[in-house]
């Protein structure tokens, strides 16, 4: 029976090894740094050409859409800004003041060319009571 | 109304503590009165929670904005049905739903358990109501749905428009039924460990509950995918988003469990392994709830977030330490009765199935929490996106499909070469033929070719199984339809399982086709102009606007033609919700979807540039409808396996035929 057991152990090692290899190479090939805007700017110039993900608040009034579905806007972390160019599906939530998450390359011209655009609600969805207080004042 | 609800929440919480204490002490000192009292208080919690839920629903429907939860999740323009579903739109409400479902399931367990059994059953109650007490603590003291605002706003924030969708109304409930259902087998397993009654009777009960929970989880996952596909407007149904992964991980381990449990039932092997699977699965459901509820991993669709995170982490740690502790305490008593004989056997097919499911769950887990790990280790947040998950899971998935064909046909113990040849020659030929035909049809994607061939292999094995069973019966002169239905009803687990596998094959075909052969076109058009995608041509006729109570809609009218003939008119929309309230989202893209068995034409009105000019994005997603059809087949098969046994007439005949089928 030892022979049978040995076969099992070998098979299990092969499976575990293959999955570990897939995980390892998957991480290596697809990992993306998630940076804040000041981290991104601190990483210039080595960040040029690297795929990164950045999030920031959309500066009101900076969204420019053209007819071909391209969009440009600026995001900020309160102090630092970057300009973003994107083409593709724009999430419904995307608007002034929302938190935008963009993924792509930061170019030498200091423009972020994004091919992924996600938008998150500007505040935690439930914890914002300021609006109610303003509501109360106006009513 | 809310005062009643609030009082009942407190009562329910303290009663859950009492239930735990009474059952614990009763079990320890073998006091039947205490155990009985614990059972009664367990049942009364369910009644209290119905009152709690009813009073919250009452306030939601009557939009009592004095309640914080109501003000945050409804508004006066919200249709009644979505005021009702707002019960699980927010944090406090979904935790309440969690409690309600858990106490419903627990009450069923209590009611159908043997009262005289005071060694094992009270421990089930202890485990179940400890979990319930934790969740009740959350809704009583941390996130109470009856919290009042210091004032009454005139209008509530309203429900996010993308949640105002029929699928979103039922998807969370289905998922919760699945999630919560997995608590029950965990409790059985824990009770077996605590009481030391480690015979295999607990595993039978666990299997039934796991299959029920698994079914809800599967359907819930598919409903969520369908919702994302219809509502999120990016043309896909699965994004490996943390919230999706959170539900997918326990599904993977629960799937492993429903398979490995068969081996334990059959010959008492894998007893330790099954306990580990149950603990892991329960851990993953808690982790999933934690991920979804705490917002720790940024996700595009975590709608309810708050700071219950630390409490949850504490509870997860407690569960893990306790359950592995008691597991180690009993580990000597969990020795298997038998050993594995051969690597080419059904047992080993099941082992490999389990390893792969667990491996997939591990990979998904790692990918999901990778940002947290990397930040802790390197100080930098590193993400792995959908390519990671696909890269790891596609190969695992392909091997699993192969095993899905092998498992049911290969002999137990040790498969002889004759057995292999007899059972697998035909399916192998089918698989190769499928591959060759598709290659001739100019499909060159290796993954897709492999996937379709393996699907052919599985279908061939299942069809042979059905054919064998039916032909044995109909050779005795039975009508084919009659023999098919009697065959299935005599062996529901086996044939129901095959039907589930068939549904999985349909889903795999849909996923493979839609992820390999999809195409996309974007066009900006004036009215009267047209664009082509695949064999379809779309002509932009005009823009229409309409108004109703809730929204201002803009609807594009496009004529759809194929091969020079107009076949349909499609209406993608872009809507602005009129009442802006305080909700953050008031714009909504309503995709137009034309679905056939062959492909889905998915059209988005991405921008309205003027009265006569608009930008469209159109996609062809082949065979997506197969995924939903497969889901229905899975549900059907699962229902068959779960159907209660009717009278055991002619059981000897069944066995005889079963034996013949095995021999044949």
Elements of chain A, N to C (H/E): HEHEEEEEEH
- Report the average pLDDT across residues of chain A: 79
In one word, what is the shape of chain B? globular
Q: In terms of structural class, how would the helical and strand content of chain A be classed?
A: alpha+beta
The parts of chain B where pLDDT drops under 50 for at least 5 residues are 299-305, 647-664
Biggest sheet, spatial arrangement of strands of chain A: 2-4-5-7-6
> Could you give me the name of the CATH homologous superfamily of the largest domain in chain A?
Nucleic acid-binding proteins
Integer-rounded radius of gyration of chain A: 23 Å
Tell me the strand percentage band of chain B. Answer: 5-15%
CATH hierarchy, class of the largest domain in chain A: Mainly Beta
Low-confidence runs of chain A: 122-139
Considering residues with a beta carbon less than 8 A from a beta carbon on another chain, report the largest interface and each chain's count.
Answer: A-B, 54 and 67 residues
List the helices and strands and how they pair.
The complex is a heterodimer of chains A (139) and B (664).
Chain A (H helix, E strand, L loop, with lengths): L1 H29 E5 L1 H6 L8 E8 L5 E2 L4 E7 L4 E7 L11 E8 L4 E10 L9 H9 L1
Parallel strand pairs in A: 1-2, 5-7
Antiparallel strand pairs in A: 2-4, 2-6, 3-4, 4-5, 6-7
Chain B lengths: L1 H27 L3 H30 L6 H6 L6 H6 L5 H21 L9 H22 L23 H16 L1 H13 L5 H31 L10 H26 L3 H24 L14 H21 L16 H33 L2 E4 L1 H21 L10 H24 L5 H29 L5 H11 L1 H25 L2 E8 L3 E4 L2 E12 L3 E12 L2 E6 L2 E5 L9 E4 L1 E4 L3 E12 L2 E10 L1 H19 L8 H13 L1
Antiparallel strand pairs in B: 2-11, 3-4, 4-5, 5-6, 5-7, 7-8, 9-10, 10-11
Helix pairs in contact in B: 1-2, 1-6, 2-5, 5-6, 5-7, 6-8, 7-9, 8-9, 8-11, 9-10, 9-19, 10-11, 10-13, 11-12, 13-14, 14-16, 15-16, 16-17, 16-18, 16-20, 17-18, 18-19
């Amino acid at each position: 029976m030892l022979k049978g057991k040995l076969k099992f152990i070998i098979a299990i090692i092969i499976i575990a090894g293959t999955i570990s290899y897939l995980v390892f190479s998957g991480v290596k090939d697809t990992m993306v740094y998630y940076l804040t805007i000041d981290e991104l700017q601190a990483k210039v110039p080595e960040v040029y050409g690297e795929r990164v993900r950045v999030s920031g608040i959309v500066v009101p009034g900076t969204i420019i859409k053209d007819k071909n579905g391209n969009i440009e806007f600026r995001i900020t972390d309160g102090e630092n800004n970057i300009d973003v160019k994107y083409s593709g599906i724009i999430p419904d939530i995307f608007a002034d003041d929302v938190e935008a998450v963009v993924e792509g390359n930061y170019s030498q011209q200091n423009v972020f060319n994004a091919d992924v655009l996600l938008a998150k609600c500007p505040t935690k969805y439930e914890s914002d009571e300021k609006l109610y207080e303003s509501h109360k004042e106006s009513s | 109304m809310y005062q009643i609800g609030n009082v009942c929440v407190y009562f329910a919480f303290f009663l859950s503590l009492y239930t735990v204490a009474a059952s614990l002490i009763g079990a320890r000192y073998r006091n039947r009165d205490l155990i009985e009292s614990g059972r009664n208080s367990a049942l009364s919690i369910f009644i209290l929670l119905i009152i709690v839920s009813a009073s919250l629903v009452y306030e939601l429907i009557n939009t009592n904005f004095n309640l914080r939860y109501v003000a945050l999740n409804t508004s006066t323009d919200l249709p009644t049905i979505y005021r009702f579903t707002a019960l699980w739109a927010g944090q406090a409400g979904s935790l309440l739903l969690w409690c309600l479902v858990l106490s419903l399931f627990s009450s069923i367990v209590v009611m159908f358990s043997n009262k005289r059994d005071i060694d094992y059953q009270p421990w089930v109650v202890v485990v179940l109501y400890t979990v319930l007490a934790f969740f009740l603590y959350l809704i009583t003291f941390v996130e109470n749905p009856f919290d009042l605002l210091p004032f009454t706003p005139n209008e509530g924030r309203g429900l996010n428009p993308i949640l105002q969708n029929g699928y979103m109304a039922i998807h969370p409930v289905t998922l919760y039924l699945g999630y919560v259902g997995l608590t029950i087998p965990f409790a059985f397993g824990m009770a077996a460990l605590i009481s030391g009654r480690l015979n295999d009777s607990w595993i039978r009960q666990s299997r039934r509950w796991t299959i029920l929970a698994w079914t809800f989880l599967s359907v819930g996952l598919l409903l969520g995918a369908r919702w994302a596909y219809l509502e999120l407007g990016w043309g896909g149904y699965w994004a490996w988003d943390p919230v999706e992964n959170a539900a997918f991980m326990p599904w993977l381990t629960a799937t492993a469990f429903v398979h490995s449990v068969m081996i334990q039932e059959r010959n008492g092997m894998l007893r330790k392994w099954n306990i580990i699977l149950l603990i892991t699965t329960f851990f993953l459901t808690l982790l999933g709830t934690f991920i979804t509820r705490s917002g720790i991993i940024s996700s595009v669709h975590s709608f309810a977030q708050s700071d219950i995170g630390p409490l949850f982490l504490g509870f997860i740690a407690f569960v893990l330490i306790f359950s592995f502790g008691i597991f180690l305490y009993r580990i000597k008593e969990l020795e298997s009765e038998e050993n594995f004989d051969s690597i080419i056997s059904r047992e080993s097919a099941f082992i490999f199935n389990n390893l792969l499911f667990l491996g997939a769950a591990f990979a998904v887990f790692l990918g999901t929490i990778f940002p947290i790990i990397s930040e802790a280790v390197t100080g930098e947040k590193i993400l792995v996106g959908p390519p990671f998950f696909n890269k790891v899971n596609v190969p695992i998935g392909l091997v699993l499909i192969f095993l899905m064909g092998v498992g049911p046909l290969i002999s137990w113990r040790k498969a002889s070469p004759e057995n292999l040849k007899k059972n697998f020659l035909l399916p192998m030929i089918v698989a190769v033929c499928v591959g060759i035909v598709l290659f001739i049809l100019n499909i060159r994607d290796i993954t897709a070719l492999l996937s379709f061939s393996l699907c052919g292999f599985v279908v061939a094995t299942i069809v042979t199984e059905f054919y064998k069973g039916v032909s044995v019966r109909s050779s005795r002169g039975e009508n084919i339809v009659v023999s098919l239905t009697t065959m299935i009803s005599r062996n529901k687990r086996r044939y129901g399982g095959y039907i589930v596998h068939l549904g999985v094959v349909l889903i795999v075909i849909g996923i493979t086709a839609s992820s390999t052969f999809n195409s996309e076109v974007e066009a900006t058009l004036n009215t009267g102009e047209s664009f082509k995608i695949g064999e379809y041509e779309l002509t932009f006729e005009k823009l229409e606007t309409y108004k109703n109570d809730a929204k201002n809609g803009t609807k594009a009218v496009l004529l759809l033609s194929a091969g020079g003939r107009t076949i349909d008119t499609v209406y993608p929309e872009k809507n602005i919700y009129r009442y802006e309230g305080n909700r953050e989202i008031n714009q909504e893209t309503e995709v137009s979807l034309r679905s056939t068995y062959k492909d889905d034409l998915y059209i988005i009105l991405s921008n309205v540039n003027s009265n006569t000019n608009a930008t469209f994005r159109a996609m062809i997603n082949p065979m997506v409808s197969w995924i939903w059809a497969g889901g229905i087949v899975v549900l059907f098969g699962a229902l068959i396996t779960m159907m209660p046994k009717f009278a055991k007439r002619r059981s000897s005949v069944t066995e005889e035929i079963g034996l013949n089928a095995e021999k044949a």
